[in-house]
Design brief:
Layout lengths: L5 E12 H7 L8 E12 L2 E11 L8 E3 H10 L5 H8 L4 E14 L2 E5 L2 E2 L5 E6 L7 E3 L3 E3 H13 L7
Antiparallel strand pairs: 1-2, 2-3, 3-5, 4-5, 5-6, 5-8, 6-10, 7-8, 8-9
Length: 167
């Protein structure tokens, strides 16, 4: 715990209640539970320098899985925004959506996070939210290499931004 304190750790993460987590950060509502791992986490001066993080809904964990319009929009904003006006128009008609699986992984080395989701696709994109039921919506990530400080800046902007207005 000196000028540049260093912490190294690995941990298992079990059954995070997403509704409590997303409610605390005013992100939009997501219902369900996440589990996963963080391995080889290295913090220097309390800033992450390296880690392997993977969080996803478990197929063995039954329960309601819903994601609100606002949470979909915020996840899309983290990835650079919704693709096209049709997606934005589609969102206006529904308050929330069912999902089958939700998750992401980040392999962080220095300032670059290599991202993936619950499904990798042939075009090198990845699925962050795999829809289920009607209406169905998928949230797709297209940028696998993400600047870590920029990702943190976007998270802070989403968290601090005003809520959506549906008219």
């Amino acid at each position: 715990f000196g000028v540049a304190p260093t912490l190294e750790m690995s941990a298992e993460i079990r059954r995070i209640e997403l509704q409590l987590l997303t409610g605390a950060f005013d992100f939009g509502r997501i219902e369900g539970r996440l589990s996963g791992r963080v391995d080889d986490l290295v913090l220097v001066g309390w800033e992450p320098q390296r880690m392997r993080l993977a969080l996803a809904t478990s197929t063995e964990d039954p329960g309601r899985r819903r994601i609100s319009q606002r949470a979909v929009q915020n996840l899309a904003d983290l990835g650079g925004g919704l693709q096209g006006a049709v997606s934005a128009l589609f969102l206006r008609f529904f308050d929330d959506f069912g999902y089958r699986r939700l998750g992401f992984a980040c392999d962080l080395e220095g300032r670059v996070c290599r991202m993936s989701g619950v499904v990798d696709q042939a075009d090198d994109s990845f699925v962050l939210v795999q829809g289920g039921g009607v209406p169905r919506i998928d949230v797709i990530g297209h940028n696998r290499r993400v600047d870590w400080p920029e990702l943190i800046r976007r998270l802070n902007a989403v968290r601090g931004g005003p809520g959506p207005v549906v008219q």
